[in-house]
Amino acid sequence: MITVTDLGLAYSGQPLFSHVDLQFVKGNCYGIIGANGAGKSTFLKILSGELEPTSGEVSILPRTRMSILKQDQNAYNQYTVMDTVIMGNQRLYDIGKEKEALYAKEEMTEEDGIKACELEEEYAELGGWEAESDASRILQGLGIPVSMHYDVMENVDGRLKVKVLLAQALFGSPDILMMDEPTNNLDINAINWLEDFLLDFPGTVIVVSHDRHFLNTICTHIVDIDYNKIKMYVGNYDFWYDASQLMQNLMKNQN
């Protein structure tokens, strides 16, 4: 689903990483790890297309819908919590607004009627009729009560805004889900709910996290950024750790 070919990134001529060749496929969860400053969040931005690499390329299959955990807590201040979550599928949200505008007209033309039928068909295909109930289920799973679902984001506490943005990323069954430290500001119940959600998620998950227990629970692969290299290991965090320790011991013994 995502193919990384001969990827490299350098700052001021100094390589952060180079000659990276990886594949991220459907049904797997990849945890990106590394020391502070190793380039974990930067690598995630390159995968998402937010940042251009110095060399190489990232290829994503056509018609793939990608969802990325947003970091700007105030970007949706003028919207309700519900609208913010549904914007996780921007096309679905836009169709909903187009429909509202058409049906708000005092008189609809024949052209308006044809357009409305087309929108209704696409709306149904994208799961529009279940959108609010799906969004509500995710919000409740993350600990945001129903009573807040139609509050304006500007009036929502900062810690809860983080949860709303996480709900936005999870909404709408994306093909690829990318998240940077998604367990920040989550209580244990919300983390457990998120783990269950991701274990059932059929697409590709790529996540940066310092939470070892979280990585152990959800990851099928570990992507380790270390000494300007990026390597992928099959297994969860503990499997990677045991393998890395074994490798270090072998290298010591050889020296």
TrEMBL record:
Q: Does the keyword Magnesium apply?
A: no
Q: Does the record bear ATP-binding in its keywords?
A: yes
Keywords tagged on the record: ATP-binding, Nucleotide-binding
Per the database record, which ranges form the ABC transporter domain? 2-252
Mind telling me which InterPro entries this protein's record contains?
A: AAA+_ATPase, ABC_transporter-like_ATP-bd, ABCF_ATPase, P-loop_NTPase
Report which superkingdom the organism of origin falls in: Bacteria
Pfam families reported for this sequence: ABC_tran
Q: Which GO terms describe its molecular function?
A: ATP binding; ATP hydrolysis activity
Entry-linked PANTHER family: ABC TRANSPORTER ATP-BINDING SUBUNIT, DRUG RESISTANCE ABC TRANSPORTER,ATP-BINDING PROTEIN
Name of this protein: ATP-binding cassette domain-containing protein
Starting at the broadest rank, the lineage of the source organism is: Bacteria, Bacillati, Bacillota, Clostridia, Eubacteriales
